[in-house]
Amino acid sequence: MKKKSKRYNELLKLPRFKGQGIVSDIIPFLKKTSTAKFDESIDVSFQINKKNSKTDIGIRTVVNLPNGTGKKVKIAVLCEDAKSDEAKSSGADIYGSEDLIEKISKGEMDFDKLVATAPMMVKISKLGKILGPKGLMPNPKLGTVTNDIKSTVNSLKTGQVEIKSDKDGNIATSIGKKSFSDEKLKENFEVIAEAILKEKPNNFKGNFILSSFITSSMGLSHKVKVKVI
């Protein structure tokens, strides 16, 4: 059995929320168990009910968090040469056309998100095996294939997150930092939960979200009650 660290054993002595409660009540307890010396991320996880549907349920969408995540996101924009100035002024960290494609083909991917204009998608289709496994392939459904570079980069920089369920129906993402106010964390949590509930199929019966937990990077996990739908 793996030995628990001294810090973890000390965390267990701190006040914790007992049982399951609403997120606004749990957040103060969560912060008390976030004792790392850095500004810990606040993370949430959900499990959706995949058994009560006649079709396989898979969620993959984007959500704009009203208060952002507190994380710096490095954006690369793949565009035609004529749009280079627009990419630069949008705040993109990296931008280019054929030169950027060449770097990606060599495995040089020093960015968190890749945005591409529609005309460039034909040229990077051959890079699917490189970008796909890392979740970096631009996708029209996620808004990363666009001709409105400025708006897209701004959304990604200010708090747009992707939520994606795995084969077992688990979804995990960040909703901010410990330094965020309780109200801001609550708002971000509720936006994520509502976005998941909107993905519920019309023919679905029963509770769509089976469970939800909130934790910090180095803290303890707390079970959160979400509305039944």
Question: Would you write up a description of this structure?
Answer:
The protein has 229 residues and is an alpha/beta fold. The chain has two domains: 124 residues, Ribulose 1,5 Bisphosphate Carboxylase/Oxygenase; 83 residues, Rossmann fold, CATH 3.40.50. β8 and β9 form a beta hairpin.
For this entry, give a set of tags.
229 residues, Ribulose 1,5 Bisphosphate Carboxylase/Oxygenase, 2 domains, 8 helices
- The CATH H-level homologous superfamily of the largest domain: Ribosomal protein L1/L10, rRNA-binding domain
N- to C-terminal distance: 39 Å
Strand element count? 9
What name does the CATH topology of the largest domain carry?
A: Ribulose 1,5 Bisphosphate Carboxylase/Oxygenase
Q: How large, in whole angstroms, is the Cα Rg?
A: 20 Å
What is the correct CATH architecture of the largest domain?
2-Layer Sandwich
Structural class: alpha/beta
Residue stretches low in confidence (pLDDT < 50, at least 5 long) are none
Question: What percentage of the residues does DSSP assign to strands (E)?
Answer: 15-25%
Overall spatial form: globular
| Biggest sheet features | 4 strands, antiparallel
SSE order: HHEEEHEHEHHHEEHEE
